[in-house]
């Protein structure tokens, strides 16, 4: 009996430029993050609008290099142009193999947590910055719990995204987002993100995300002398899961 192999179209297609975030790209990715987040409204609020010095920028780049080196083991990490734009996505908790965290896992998680505190200036001797970090964490956590509930554990989450919103809206940055939303569609799960600027919100909206909640930072902080910072909680529901 002769069997014919049925030709099938690939279930997930991504732009040719999109590749896994390799260790060789980490330094470039970290520099991309530092340059694109220097003007980020949330970062400006957490850092009290202080423009980072060259030394502080170097410190941020080194810190992000360490974070990315640790995160790429447990996340969906993609890049284009050898790290000039990149995305980090946390997969759904229910899609992970259940096991007791090893000592290595615990050490890795602890290191990432500590490095993120350094990046956000969430340090014990920076009282005002710690207060603002706590405000941001509590408000975002409350908003996501209200709109998603326990479902958030079943969703993808774009935890880090670095691209120039002025030049990349219709370029390779979009290919990165399309790749991860395509993955979410493939397994029939939603994907969410925190947008911290109007440019980001417009960008994600053009890729199928909608705002379902807003978080306001600094509106009741008498030490903040700029406009309150708006964080959009955005979601994209699955489209035609398999």
Question: How does this structure look, described?
Answer:
- 40% of the residues lie in helices and 17% in strands.
- By secondary structure, it is of the alpha+beta class.
- The protein has a seven-stranded mixed β-sheet, with helices on both faces.
- Helix 1 crosses helix 3 and helix 3 runs antiparallel to helix 4 (103-119).
- Residues 1-10 have low confidence and may be disordered.
Mean pLDDT: 87
Q: Any idea of the CATH topology? A: Aminopeptidase
Q: Tell me what the CATH architecture is.
A: 3-Layer(aba) Sandwich
Q: How large, in whole angstroms, is the Cα Rg?
A: 19 Å
Structural category? alpha+beta
The total tally of domains equals: 1
Share of helical residues = 40-55%
Main β sheet profile: 7 strands, mixed
Question: Can you say what the CATH homologous superfamily is?
Answer: Gcn5-related N-acetyltransferase (GNAT)
User: How far is the first residue's CA from the last residue's CA?
Assistant: 31 Å
Shape descriptor: globular
Number of helices: 7
Class in CATH? Alpha Beta
Strand order of the largest sheet: 1-2-3-4-5-7-6
Count of DSSP E strands? 7
Unreliable stretches (pLDDT < 50, length at least 5) are 1-10
**Percentage beta strand:** 15-25%
Order of helices and strands: EHHHEEHHEHEHEE
